[in-house]
Amino acid sequence: MHILPWNVDSVVTLKGSFRTSPDFQKGEELIQDLLVSMLDKGTALRSKLAVAEALEDRGASIRFQSAGIRIRFEIKCLKPDLGDVVQLLIEQLNQPLFNVDEFELLKGRLQASVERMRSDTSSLSSSMLSRHVYHADHPARALPLEELERSLENMELAALSSLHERQFGASDFECALVGDIAGVNLDALFTQLCSGWSSQDNDDAIFKVLPLPQKRETRHVEVADRLNLDVRMGHGVDLLKTHPDYLPLFISIFALGGNFSSHLMSTIRDRDGLTYGIRSSLSGVSKDYPGMWSTSVTLSQENLERGVGATLSEIEHFLGSGIDQSELDEKKSTLTGAYQVQLSSTSGVASTLLSNAENGHISERIDTYPDEVLEITLEQVNRAMARHLDASSLTIVSAGTKEA
Question: Domains along the chain?
Fold first, then answer.
């Protein structure tokens, strides 16, 4: 348990997570998503209404999130109620009700959401790009809509209870407690959190990105009556968050397209007027699996070809010239400032502590991270860029209505 006292009277935030091993090639992530959505719909000991009343009476909240190979939870409550709320959390995690009516309702909502995705150009372009970047067993690889619909249509409640029995447990369990913790029996709290759990035999799978293509590949998803097209271009980045190149590479991509003063915003948006929105990011990277470098831009039908060409040209120029010291200093200042803002609430602090734990960092990194950023050198940034980014190997996906 990672603990940080915080000067907020009688309020505590607890965030935690544990590892699961859904088979992504078989669509088990979808089963896990629905299972997590069922956790607040009642337990074997309390109805959905009784759970809601128990939290409302205490002014408390419990939330759950399915996140690839991890399931996360969050508690916010008053200090005197922490023990009772943790007990309810354990009950929800270990003894969910699996009510068939709730299952059918949630399944119907998810089916409606999948149907709406058919006209969502952003989701469609991102989804297709993921299938050209990630191996089939990677947590960030999106299933085609047809497979999603088929999986949902055939899914039964028994699949959720089976996954729960196989996957839920204290495997790689991490938690962070922030707030007014004076007088809290931390040993007893941790024992309570782990009560009733058994470590599941979750596989330490190796997740992969696909090899970079030898040349650029272009794909299009035709969507009727969508004259503004969403374009995604990217390729896999075969490193983990624990790699020494991760932070320098993150900074370089932030300089390329991470905020309003980035290269892509300054040129494609402000100078050329080709789009209202463009960004570049490093996403999907954790201590367990590699991720992707991607650039997203929204373009009108008439500006599609010119906008893609201008974006590629700016990316090539950026990768060829790198960044200079003044720009690096400015980006480091922006990132460290944003980090301090993130730590302005108990929720932000707990999220940071939990993220550090999940990614194999020590608790003290919450204090040392700004120094890590400031110590990154220009040589490290430009070297990481040259090692891991290749404009000639981008897959370019557009979604929308192309001119006939």
Answer: 2-194 (3.30.830.10), 217-400 (3.30.830.10)
